[in-house]
């Protein structure tokens, strides 16, 4: 428990530093962009005087460090700036509606990956060298080599007009769960398929290593049933590496969700970024990238804590 609290404390201390680093990097890259935020905000018919007034009012003529500190102060207060003609639209409002959709798709894909990858990897390890192992290994290679965006396009073509919607509004997860589930199922499958392939291989390898350990042979030689050894000892020890790898794949899932949302017409962070890029809304792209990056950092902190919880050797030190 003390180790858990110490790790949580270190991560909480490091979180602001990592967030500042991410914001500085993204702000610097967008600062170098040749796109004029004033022109994007006021439109092509704005006069030079109006453009200059906008730059002065919004501090665009200030030095880089001053602009960054002002942006950081606004971000702490939940203000990511505005976008669009007249600057009437707030980035934080759009992100606030889009981010939950991306997170829902990400974690739905994560659940699908866990449900399929862990049992397949365990079965392949238990029946190592036999036909179930051979079949699962072939499937894992196929899944791993399947690009999510390519599979998403096939699913859209294959299920258009069917009972599984590939477009349209996303029902509320709390108000209409069955409708939400059907609308999210195909995007989540496309997103999770490569992760299932990779995680199946990782789980199998980790399980095989544990099954070949000395303590397993000792327990089996003492007469303890194989099923008991696997369920009580092997599984718990073998899960440590897959959970770590799964945490790293969450970042892939978040990034992949951005692409999948475009294909399935989901109004998530992918739509936010594409809208910002197509319309040259620098603040919208900047805010979208920052939110996705910060979400990735927070998720990885949670994975670190889960790693400590399931690893008795670290937790007991």
Care to give the gist of this entry?
With 317 residues, this protein is an all-alpha fold.
Walk me through the structure.
Strands 1-2 form a two-stranded antiparallel sheet. α1 packs antiparallel against α13, α5 crosses α11 and α8 crosses α10. The model has no long low-confidence stretch (mean pLDDT 82). β1 and β2 form a beta hairpin. The protein is elongated and about 85 Å long. It has 317 residues and is mainly alpha-helical.
List keywords for this structure.
mainly alpha, 317 residues, single chain
In helices, the fraction of residues equals over 70%
| SS elements, strand count | 2
Strand content: under 5%
| Secondary structural class | mainly alpha
Please give the count of helices. Answer: 14
Order of helices and strands: HHHHEEHHHHHHHHHH
Biggest sheet layout: 2 strands, antiparallel
Q: How is the largest sheet built, in terms of strand order?
A: 1-2
Calculate the mean pLDDT score and round it: 82
Q: Flag low-confidence runs.
A: none
| Morphology call | elongated
What does the radius of gyration come to?
Answer: 24 Å
Straight-line distance between termini: 10 Å
What's the structural blueprint in terms of helices and strands?
Elements: H1 2-31, H2 37-42, H3 48-57, H4 64-76, E1 82-83, E2 89-90, H5 91-126, H6 131-144, H7 148-159, H8 177-211, H9 214-221, H10 226-238, H11 240-263, H12 269-278, H13 282-310, H14 312-315
Antiparallel strand pairs: 1-2
Helix pairs in contact: 1-13, 5-6, 5-8, 5-11, 5-12, 5-13, 6-8, 7-8, 7-11, 8-10, 8-11, 11-12, 11-13, 12-13
């Amino acid at each position: 428990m003390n180790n858990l609290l110490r790790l949580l404390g270190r991560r909480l201390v490091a979180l602001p530093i990592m967030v500042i680093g991410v914001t500085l990097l993204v702000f610097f890259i967008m600062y170098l962009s040749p796109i004029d935020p004033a022109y994007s905000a006021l439109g092509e018919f704005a006069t030079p005087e109006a453009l200059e007034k906008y730059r002065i009012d919004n501090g665009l003529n200030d030095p880089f460090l001053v602009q960054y500190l002002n942006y950081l102060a606004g971000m702490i207060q939940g203000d990511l700036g505005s976008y669009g003609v007249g600057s009437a639209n707030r980035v934080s409002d759009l992100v606030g509606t889009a981010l939950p959709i991306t997170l829902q798709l990400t974690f739905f894909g994560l659940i699908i990956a866990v449900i399929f990858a862990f049992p397949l990897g365990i079965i392949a390890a238990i029946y190592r060298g036999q036909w179930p192992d051979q079949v699962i290994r072939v499937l894992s290679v196929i899944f791993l080599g399947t690009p999510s965006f390519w599979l998403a396009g096939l699913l859209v073509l294959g299920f258009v007009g069917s009972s599984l919607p590939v477009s349209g509004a996303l029902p509320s997860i709390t108000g209409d769960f069955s409708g939400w589930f059907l609308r999210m199922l195909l995007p989540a499958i496309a997103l999770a398929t490569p992760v299932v392939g990779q995680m199946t291989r990782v789980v199998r390898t980790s399980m095989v290593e544990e099954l070949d350990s000395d303590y397993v042979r000792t327990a089996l030689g003492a007469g303890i049933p194989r099923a008991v050894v696997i369920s009580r000892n092997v599984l718990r020890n073998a899960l440590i590496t897959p959970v770590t790898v799964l945490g790293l794949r969450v970042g892939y899932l978040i990034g992949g969700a951005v692409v999948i949302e475009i294909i399935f017409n989901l109004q998530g962070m992918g739509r936010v970024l594409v809208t910002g890029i197509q319309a040259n809304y620098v603040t919208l792209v900047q805010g979208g990238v920052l939110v996705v990056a910060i979400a990735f950092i927070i998720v990885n902190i949670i994975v670190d804590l889960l790693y400590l919880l399931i690893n008795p050797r670290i937790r007991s030190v």
